[in-house]
Amino acid sequence: VVLAWRIPGTGETRASLSTWSQERSMKWLVLLGLVALSECIVILPLRKIKTLRETLREKNLLNSFLEQEAYRLSKNDSKIATLPLRNHLDIAYVGVITIGTPPQEFRVVFDTGSANLWVPSTTCKSPACRTHNAFNPQNSLSYGEVGKPISIVYGSGIFRGFLGSDTVRIGNLVSPKQSFGLSLVESGFDFVPFDGILGLSFPSIAFKDTIPIFDNLWSHGALSEPVFAFYLSKNKSEGSVVMFGGVDHRYYQGELNWVPVSETRYWKISMNHISMNGNVVACPCGCHAIVDTGTSLIYGPTEQVTNIHKLMKAKPQSSEYAVSCDAIRTLPPVIFNINGIDYPLPPQAYITKVQNSCSSIFQGGSESRYQSNWILGDVFLRQYFSVFDRKNKRIGLAPAV
């Protein structure tokens, strides 16, 4: 309107200019809205990688690796285990963070199944540390020594080190004086395609007297909302994201269905049952499931997973269950009923094909690690966009685009 006064013309011209200025104003409002959105939500790209299990399987080294790690763990005399037993064989998505001033870059797993951040240190002498990016405290002006010894026992590896403190950046989010682990000894991490792990679970399972990075960002007002969300691409190595501070609705269809968290240690929810072809095949009396971005598979109690495998006509083959590749076209979906809503998992998702052989993504053994809880990993989360709401202690699920 002000511009119309500056340019002389007829009333018709002023009217058309007014319309033009309104359209221009609307475009600016849309642009400002996008800027506001980008300021509220920090979206970090994740890269889908080949899991260590897949790499070892292709080289026919999987069974010998599992036997070697079982021997290593049996010799472990550490009584310190601040995390549940985790299996990094099946981690499939990594993103980049920086630590220190000037920043040192690391590829990490954004893991909802743990609550700690750790990376290798330059003082680590293990072979695994030599093949990954390692943090050098002497090169950071903002580093603070904590020195407290820490130890983590995983399902397929061991981490020992000490605590440090420094500035950590996730995209344009800054977490000052962030406690994190620095490894001195790493066992079983030699071939993994990531440097460290960034935990996003609840602080009750974090290192003692430390504040997890998400809680640190929240307390410093870096997040407009205390939520984070994952979109995991189905087939492409690119396109996956983790977002902090809000939800980008372009990544899912329909409405989010909210499920309350049943225990504020892990992102654990209640599940009604698991069915195939209308028949309950697992979790017959209700059960619990941990929603876990730190594994690509689905874990459950051995007996119940065996029942699912029987219906697939899957046969044990070394450490996995082999399935006919033709079954992908004929098997029904496995349906997870959560909070009264069905979440189907099609056979294209729960059967993986490597070269000319196919295998099931269901794994037994959760009773020895997770008190018979089910673990819903990336196979499930590729189908369903997931929102983790810390303030309201709930998880939102909706079909991914």
Q: Give the total of domains.
A: 2
Could you estimate the helical fraction of the residues in percent?
10-25%
- E-strand count: 26
CATH superfamily of the largest domain: Acid Proteases
Report the principal-axis shape.
globular
From the N-terminal CA to the C-terminal CA, the straight-line distance is 41 Å
- What spatial order of strands do you see in the largest sheet? 2-3-8-4-7-6
Rg over CA atoms, rounded to whole Å, is 24 Å
User: What would you call the structural class?
Assistant: alpha+beta
Task: Supply the number of helical segments.
Answer: 10
Family: Belongs to the peptidase A1 family.
GO molecular function: aspartic-type endopeptidase activity
GO cellular component, one term: extracellular region
Protein name: Peptidase A1 domain-containing protein
